[in-house]
Amino acid sequence: MFPDxxxxxxxxxxxSSELITGELSIVTGDSCVVGNxxxxxxxxxxxxxxxxxxxxxxxxxxxxxxxxxFVLSFNNLTYNVKxxxxxxxxxxxxxxxxSADTDFTGTKTLLNDISGVxxxxxxxxxxxxxGSGKSTLIDALAGRIAKESLKGEVTLxxxxxxxxxxKRISAYVMQDDMLYPMLTVEETLMFAAEFRLxxxxxxxxxxxxxxxxxxxxxxxxxAKTVIGDEGHRGVSGGERRRVSIGIDIIHDPIILLLDEPTxxxxxxxxxxxxxxxxxxxxxxxxxxxxxHQPGIRILGLLDxxxxxxxxxxxxxxxxxxxxxxxxxxxxxxxxxxxxxxxALDLIRELEGSPEGIKTLVEFNKSWQxxxxxxxxxxxxLGFTLxxxxxxxxxxxxxxxxxxxxxxxxxxxxxxxxxxxxxxVVLSSRSILxxxxxxxxxxxxxxxxxxxxxILATVYWQLDNSPRGVQERLGFFAFAMSTTxxxxxxxxxxxxxxxxxxxxxxxxxxxxxxxxxxxxxxxxIPSLTxxxxxxxxxxxxxxxLDGGYPEFLFYFLIMLASFWCGSSFVTFLxxxxxxxxxxxxxxxxxxxxxxxxxGFFIHRNRIPEYWIWYHYLSLVKYPYEAVLRNEFENPxxxxxxxxxxxxxxxxxxxPSDVKLKLLxxxxxxxxxxxxxxxxLRKGSDILKQEGxxxxxxxxxxxxxxxxxxxxxxxxYFSLLLGSKNKRS
Length: 727
Known about the structure:
Helix content is 52%, strand content 10%. The protein is α/β, with parallel strands linked by helices and 727 residues long. The longest helix has 31 residues, at 512-542. It is found in: Membrane. The chain crosses the membrane at residues 441-462, 474-495, 516-539, 551-572, 579-601, 700-721.
């Protein structure tokens, strides 16, 4: 089981007494808290405001030493996923060492019987090569794996963590920095405070919390700088990462989980990030992060390390014991060599050996046995969850919704703010971000203006002849379809916000319904302006019939069309993950809507097996509405006398011949038909086009209703598609 050069007593190292003493010193000794780091800020706030209680709500009381109040335990975590079976060819055996990962039942084990303990005041780092299970373990602790798929248990101070409680007392920082690019650092953190801190907390206290956090994160010099993106210069990569951490710790979570927070950063920025995490831990939080390969300076900031190999733990102890551990294992770390680099290289070497990592896994188990006594002492000195949260509140730690009479089942509300407050904050953030990127709306407005100008000049002052009627029909069909196609420009908006939305709603920052309603309300002013511009550009220039009442309805149906198209595109963005795929689907669907709208083929000519699509066509209803608005005037004539022969083979016949034909037809019908007799009214055109069922106002309401339906479907797509959990 073990290498030959390891004696039996090495399974229980002789230095265990030193380790136990070190563990107990964490419990009984004085610990530095974040108040020591930011105490000058608290003094400055107190001096400026004269309110000592306000400072107490932001800072941690450092006047007395404290025991460890929070202990996060995870026991026997195991997680399997289904994988496609691979057909094995006769005479070929499976790769050596692969039996630990994949079995013949078509499953792959990502986590294999992992146990550990993390305490507040400490940073626990999860290390391992790519594919070792680091991110999967962080997801398991963050509740991002479905309960039915994850075996084992996760407890806080001995009590199982329910999903609702976990979301309110923890925070998860993704590997990618998903932030609004045109908000400043201070604005980003302030909006996070509005979302995550209790509604009952005065805004002045929220501002003080933000200012304190800016100092704690080392972002004072960048507080007024925008986040930035590819097209806008902003803060540095390290500052972005610290802002990402800040928005998730604004509510002072008990548990902070981070997925490779130093990824993509230089050594100096990475060290600064871990230094910030150390101060967060010392403020009374449990900090657990995955990290690929920490440098020597970062290693000195870590309190515990867990090395994983193919989903199994091979080391779980303090970084200071790393040399002793591998020495007892029989593979001592050479002097002046990076400890973590040596450990990762050794693990990789063992993974490629015939016996695999089994020996190291078993040695780690024996190493953990000797720490049972220390663990017993820690459990004996620990708090229940109710007592721990009460003690944290008494020390001034901000626990959302916390009170001194908390219970283990209902200690925090599901959301920090009421519904209307969430909508106000969401709207304010979106408006502020959009105001600083006017080019996005400018492109849509420009497209509508150009399209309206082209249509106005092409269909300039149409007459009331049969040719003019046919040209009117073409104008209306193109105009209605334009309103829908223009809406596809809004497709990238939610797709760009998707990961921000998923991160925020995963931990109940706000309700999904608040986001949907806020998003809908914010589109109305811009759609109103687009509709007004298009209607004013085309109505009088094309020579459409009617005065201001007809223009008002024309404007309303344009607005309803923009609303319906925007809602459809918004719904599509909730179910389609990529911009190009969304464009392809939306353009295709809008083309089918136009095809079955009734312009290219009349309703009575559509095959029965396609007639359902005619009634589902979003273009059908606004198209019929504008036709009724144009042709319902009973005094308007669209074919007088010989004009009836236009657009027919008799159109080129001389006028006197046409008059004789009219007289002959009149004599046959027993009526007098002259060159000025009205032979075609608007009602005749509507019947010819098959528009007989719905009034123009009914068409308007149906178009608006389609928009509301797609907003509701958008909500359900977010509800079902943004669980942000592994199955």
